[in-house]
């Protein structure tokens, strides 16, 4: 007997099931499954992916295929009581591609296959609607010619426009059946001219042409590129599903609609959707008639409605998840065309997941897997009231989620002045550390330049403040204190609203809604915490951020950037004095001023993090960042320091660097000026001793940044240990502490075994590691990175989602080398990637101990870590149910 | 029988040999070897490194050691007819450390051990010179107390100064024997106060104290750090050599000197050296008496002279290399104290090596190994006349070798104007590509900032022009057109001379000598070429450089930087027009202007390289580098382009990047503007077709720079292949060409397998790879890199000598991954490291096909490649002779 290449579904004769995705594709398996469990579907059959492989590899169809297709067609004719290519009731079919993985790069669906001049007339007669029949025919010719014969759809559209012009009408629906009949003839003539071939009249020819086109679409450059980028094997192939057509526009006992088994925006467990009597799906899309709420179907087609309710219940029970259904009623008979897991808002996702556990449908593991970590973002930030009308000025990067309204200010001093009294939005070309005081008091930040990891974006996310970045179409006029966009000019003091979750800049004050973490959310997170192995810390530089993060579940601080403390109030003057010191003695005076300030900061943070570890990074940025830039600022500083402004300018210029990111920064500063390291270590240890005396439990972890060689770490560690020894001796106290390093340079990763000899922990600084591994500056990447991602050179922005092939490989290498020397070396991540779910999965897989992210991303990271751990569990034991397998695969 | 821990040498009873370096250390084995072959040495004995290991590990000496030392001492007394610690002729010894590898971090020599109050008097009597005896005693106490008892030498020097002050004299030699006797007492009192212990009177105590100190010196932090940096195992241990003292100041039948068996500066085969009658080595060092030329010894001590000549011949025959000898004549009896391979100039090295082959002493392999590649540098560049007096203004980085005099100019336009008429030296804070026209016409370049791989240094080396870089102690006053240094003020137009081989900046015009490659040089290089596997190409951007490099033996161009062509003449205007174009059409116009210029350049280079491959790198630097900077320049360009200067300034500013090295450059430009790639490829292929028609053989290899992902290369390669196809079709011709990429980003190295799918060759851009692997900008590293190298954090400047642990690992990984996909993938290096001998060795080892370096480094690279290949040969077959082993080990 020949191998089986064709699987029938529907009409009680279903041969496939959901488990056969590899062979039948996602769509084919789904239709078979619905049919199998008794949900009414239009019958049809699926040609397997194996045929695709044989056809593409060997150039011909396997023996027996034609016979099996013929047999399936005959069954289909029997099941529908229609005839393919003839009879009073012609059998029309849809033909679709369908691989095991969804692939947007592949062939579109062909509808109404089987129509020709003869069957169109028969359809007109059978439906009693000639216009419907010839409109369907016209669409079929156009679609088929486009997809199968390579005649571009545009050219048909032009003929259609001409026809409407001749008739003096504007809508397609105003063309009569005769107009459309004539148009079909024009379409076919065009096909002949353009392709040199006649449009196939024989439905058999149509069908085999469509099958070949589907298989051929597997190998188009676009599909290949998509697979290459998404790591899908070229050898899988696609299936072809051939399904009998049903029509919802066959009279008032027909109709079409979509339904969700639960409300996709709230999660409320009731049928939700839209419905149109005597209509096709296309009518809904065209927006000519307003659809009814699904409840209205109960009056219009009560029997079908109750069938639908029953089918919905059956499908939800079967798939154990809320479903998104497409259905058509043809002459009082209900068909489901598709069911899939319903897309939903974060709020709905959480509610559905928790309630389904309560209903006993799913386990807490499954509930946790049901909510995508990114969805939590919506639950943690204020949102624009979805019912409010908005005037969008620009849509740029959603750099930090949430929504905020305020009056426009153009400089941080102005913001600092007005911010405490009224809500302000700081609008800047780009921000720098010197804008910090203005950012702190603003409701939101809008920049014209910079990407998702620009200064504005990183700082705003850290503060949980909304930010829209890189709005390149906004034209700033700082002199006039205005900006213009989308034809509007906005003046200082005018109200604008930012939507940091979508990147919209909106004119005026728009109401926002403040979401409250619900009890459902808390229950879900508690389950997630029970599953995950990876700890989640936060990046926080102030006691306030620490408190916020702890409320969100942070289990310590993974990155406290000491330099952020340097910008507060008038500390910057002492910092500048330190940098510009001519001698060690002068520098010592400036450092002595900074010591008590840093100590007080650390005390505050240690108190907020009582009982949890706090990783403090020593001074990292190039010193030039702290210096004044404009002549006025330089004059000002010269006055304060009692120096000659010209000499001071020279000193400032001497600190200028061609590539500061690759310059004199990180531990290189501590090597050149060990007294800075000394001061910072002293502030940390004195603070630790002081709060410990108050009964607070402290675990400082001191982190040496930008280490490239083991020797750098060895020397900096010695300074830190010496200071600890001295402080503990003088205070007659002792605090447990660790000294470790950031792995943020390729060389550090490559020589991590030697570095580990001097380290008690590693923290991967994946922002910088991405910069150096790619040779790509975050500050400059905006010039071409969007194009790179847009055109598929890169699958993602590597500053948002870790580049696993390159940067990830270094993380893996360093982890392996480090643990080879120190078996229990503590490993963490403190780059922005610590809050990105896909990256978190990777960090879990390579065995890190924790990730660290901005406070508002902590719940996202907790959930992502739980997903990663559950995926592990499944990998070792195998998924318990097909549902779980799907939830895992969807991740 | 107990193990043997002590080996005697001299007096015809020698027990060791040169093969026992591991056990006896370098010094001990050398003395034994001399004694063994009949060269007179003062007898003595060596305590093995094994004792050191046992002592340091177990805390005590092995059983039997004391007895063996006593026995050796007794033999030494018999051999010298003196008694240790007594008698009329007291036996005095020197005690030295000596490991298998030379270690500057270890203990100094102790001389005259065995002296005490009694033996000093005996020595005074025996020598008839009480002053000599007590001066020796005084020195011994000081040295022993310093090295063994931890009393710092400074404190003794102070007592000595006091004594001279009391006596009203200024020279040590003016102190009488009684003064010195009194001083010894003072010294001993000081030792008691400082160390709390009496100075040991018993020579046995002295000896065992010294032995323990030598062994202890193996484990000092300084010695450990030295070993860590130099990869010497801590477990080797040091030997102790105890040698009987001989004195050259025992009268007119005594003397001391040094001799070379061949002239170390010319290589001439005759005895060369210096000699003093009735003197000790210290007298030579002190410079009180002018030593005689060695020939003078024939008159003074004819018998000893002839003995010396015989010993020299014997040692040269034995070691088969020119020797550097230390000798002493004590009362008419010659002793050799040391022999070692003579240091020599490059010129001498080449001559000696070639002549020794002719003399049948060594093989051509050995001759090639005798010359260090770096030594060739001296032979290829003009040098300051060594006999000329000089006034040095500053000593900075020897950035590009050679010497040149010229008049000072401070800007490139001035240089361009005066340069063609008179020699000029361009003095700049730092240079940029815009200074190129001025650099071309200057004799040499001096910069205040920047390191060995700064723009000035790289460009100068490429042109074989001398350059001194990073002269930080020079104060520039560009407004007054002067600079000052070392108290001198130099005005524009004043003469200065640069010594690029030593980094000296010299006031005035100093004569230089122009070395001529000798026939010896040519013979040596021919042998080297016969041994090496690695090909050597050159980095050249002009036909002129190509011709020079070919003369130096370059086997192709490994890096032709197309952007350098953009700065010539008024091309820069068209380049700027291209960069600032608002539309593709405008850019096309500018590119059309550049096309014929680039084509003509390539034609010139292809002709010069007839028959050899030429690797051309497509446009690489950030576009901002080509744009004008100052307001005047911008106004000027605005006039030329007919644009508004304010708008132009904005455009220029828009191209500014925070970290240009990590910015929009390399293939990122070609991805954003494929028409630039198109134009460059068109120029290359048209040039290739044109010169091929002239009968020239061309092998263009087109190199896509700064690739981070395989997809970038795939897309750029497609453009290049498309252009090739079109040009070949239009010209009805065909040229073989390759398309490949630079591996200069860590990500490219880590994903080299994927990249190799689209590459026909890889060229490692180790400059950029070093920058990103270390996160270290060449332009900024000058701020701290010297300190890093100076203090041992880094063993070398990684921009000069490849960092094998980090960058080298990436080179190795990429080579392995690339060849795993394309087995015969061509691999080369085009960074500055291609001309660094140690780096070349590594490139040979990882199996690259070629290195590429600046024209003047080509012979250095050829020789280094030969060394690397010979080292391979020895590794597989083992060294043929101990001599070869030493030559290899010294490399």
Automatic annotation (TrEMBL), chains A, B:
Q: Report residues binding substrate.
A: 561, 617, 744, 765-768
Record-given protein name: Pyruvate, phosphate dikinase
| Molecular functions per Gene Ontology | ATP binding; kinase activity; metal ion binding; pyruvate, phosphate dikinase activity
Q: Which residues form the PEP-utilising enzyme mobile domain?
A: 422-503
Question: Gene3D superfamilies this protein is in?
Answer: 1.20.80.30, ATP-grasp fold, A domain (3.30.1490.20), ATP-grasp fold, B domain (3.30.470.20), Phosphoenolpyruvate-binding domains (3.20.20.60), Phosphohistidine domain (3.50.30.10), Pyruvate Phosphate Dikinase, domain 2 (1.10.189.10)
Per UniProt, the keywords (alphabetical) are: ATP-binding, Kinase, Magnesium, Metal-binding, Nucleotide-binding, Pyruvate, Transferase
Signal peptide start-end:
none
- Organism field: Longimicrobium terrae
Q: Which residues bind Mg(2+)?
A: 744, 768
Residue ranges of every copy of the PEP-utilising enzyme C-terminal domain listed in the record: 521-868
Q: Which residues form the Pyruvate phosphate dikinase AMP/ATP-binding domain?
A: 63-291, 305-359
Active site at which residues?
A: 455 (tele-phosphohistidine intermediate), 830 (proton donor)
- What protein family is recorded? Belongs to the PEP-utilizing enzyme family.
Show the InterPro entries listed in the entry. Answer: ATP_grasp_subdomain_1, PEP-util_enz_mobile_dom, PEP_util_AS, PEP_util_C, PEP_util_CS, Phosphohistidine_dom_sf, PPDK_AMP/ATP-bd, Pyruvate_phosphate_dikinase
User: What EC number(s) does the entry state?
Assistant: 2.7.9.1
**Function of the protein:** Catalyzes the reversible phosphorylation of pyruvate and phosphate.
Catalytic activity annotation: pyruvate + phosphate + ATP = phosphoenolpyruvate + AMP + diphosphate + H(+)
Cofactor entry: Mg(2+)
